[in-house]
Specification:
138 residues
């Protein structure tokens, strides 16, 4: 099993970040800015977890999905009222525990192993595919 890491959490409301993807985001909420500052003091890593409901003003540990993407902060630009970040998704991770710390969310996470792609010639896969096509045709 992979080693445990404690990382600041950046809740995402309207996007998902995948491993291997570089994406820009804007951040301006106080808790999010504190999480970014905490990440900058260490390895520049955060875990991005998607909020279960987009319209929440305050995201709590109970409102986050437990699977997220660990990302590294590439570039950062400070502006009026917030920051612009360029993030590089590194790997999928599972949050073992999420709690509040000094005004931001922090999670104990473990890296998830990559799942190999499905073999299109596998008998079980072919049977499921055939059944799905038949049901769709009905």
């Amino acid at each position: 099993m992979s080693e445990r890491m404690d990382l600041p959490v950046l809740p995402l409301r309207d996007m998902v970040l995948f491993p291997g993807v570089t994406a820009p985001i804007s951040a301006g909420r106080a808790g999010t800015l504190r999480a970014i500052e905490a990440a900058l003091k260490t390895e520049r890593r955060l875990i991005f977890a998607v909020a279960q409901r987009e319209n929440l003003e305050h995201v709590s540990p109970d409102n986050l999905y437990v699977i997220g993407t660990v990302a590294r902060i590439g570039q950062m630009q400070r502006g009026l009222g917030g920051v612009q970040l360029l993030l590089q998704g590194e790997f999928r991770a599972s949050a073992i525990h999420v709690g509040e710390r000094e005004g931001y969310l922090e999670a104990a996470v473990r890296e998830l192993e990559d799942q190999p792609p499905l073999d299109p010639n596998d008998a079980a896969f072919l049977a499921l595919y055939k059944e799905a096509r038949e049901r769709a045709a009905e």
